[in-house]
Structure formats: structure tokens, C-alpha cells
Amino acid sequence: MKQENDLLSKMNQFWQSLQRANDELNSFITSGMPTTTEKRHKDFVRQWNHMKDKATDLCDLIEQQQSSDIEPKEVTLPWDSSSFKKAWQDWKEYLEEQHNRRMKSRMEYAALAYLKKLSAGNEATAVEYLQFAMAGGYTKFFKVTEKSYEQPTVAGGRGDGDY
Q1: What's the mean pLDDT when you consider all of the chain?
Q2: CA distance 67 to 84
Q3: 116 domain-assigned
Q4: Which is nearest to 54 in space by CA: 27, 14, 95, 98?
């Protein structure tokens, strides 16, 4: 049991280090490089992405082997429409692609219940919240108000757009 916990701990530390390195690399790449450098880094980025995929596979395999005998919770969507099914699948894929987060059954179950409550049972509102969160790069969805769509003002400014 202690070895299993140590292995999972090391795997999580490795994964967090890889995520920080990936964020740093993305920051460097998007900071504006000369075109000659940009051309040369494409092969490196391809190899880096390949390494991340292999690390993901390895971590998934270790996690599967180390997971306990907890049965997954059955997850049912609060709305049966194909548009919500697609929006929810897009959300799960977005979390995995953008933030390297995979939902297990209990997290998905709770997230769906929270989304239904947050949207007051309105499917269109729920889809809007998911789309807003993805468009903003958020890891969580939340209630969106008209103010959420406004441009932020500079702190201490007049609030009318003048700086």
C-alpha cells in the first residue's frame, strides 16, 4: 500500500512538473520569436507533444493499475438532447486537451448536478455557461451574467472605458 501511494505521489509530482514545463514552453513560443527560430522549433514542439502523449499514457496506465476497487458511479445527463450531449462531450474534451484534466464518474456526476442547479434547469443556459468557460480558458464553469461579457476596466478608473 505504501509503495502504491509513493508511486502515485511520484506520478503526480512528475505530471505537475510536466505541466509547468509545458506552460513555460507555450509562454516562450507565444512571446514572439523571429521567424527563423519559429521554423526551427516546430520539430521540437512535435517531439515535445509526442513525449507528453507518452507521459499521459504512462500515467493513465499507472493510475489504472493502482486504482482501488471503487466502482464508477453511473452518470446520466440532465438533458437528453443531442445538442447538450455534444456540448458536454466538448466540455470534457476541452478539459482534457486544454488543462490535462479527465473527469472520473463522481466528478462528472457532481459537475452535471452543479451545472443543472447553476442554470436553474435551463438547458440553453447550461450550454451557454459551458461555452463561455471554454472560450475564456477556464477550468470550471460558473454563472454568466451580462457583466461577464463587458470589458474589464482599469482598477481605480472611471469605469467608462477611459484610462
Answers
A1: 80
A2: 30
A3: yes
A4: 14
What's the pTM value of the predicted model, to 2 decimals? 0.53
59 and 86 belong to one structural domain:
no
Q: Does residue 116 sit in the same domain as residue 89?
A: yes
Instruction: Note the pLDDT of residue 154.
Output: 44
CA 58 remoteness from chain centre: 19
Alpha helices in the chain (DSSP H): 2-29, 35-66, 82-99, 105-118, 123-136
Domain around 19? 2-66
pLDDT value for 153: 43
Residues 13, 50 within the same domain: yes
- Cell numbers found for residue 91: 466540455
Contact between 4 and 66 under an 8 Å Cβ cutoff? The reply is yes
Question: Does residue 75 belong to any structural domain of this protein?
Answer: no
CB contact at 8 A, 123 and 84:
yes
Give a yes or no: residue 157 inside a domain.
Answer: no
Residues 6+ apart with CB under 8 A from 83: 123, 127
Report how many domains make up the chain.
Answer: 2
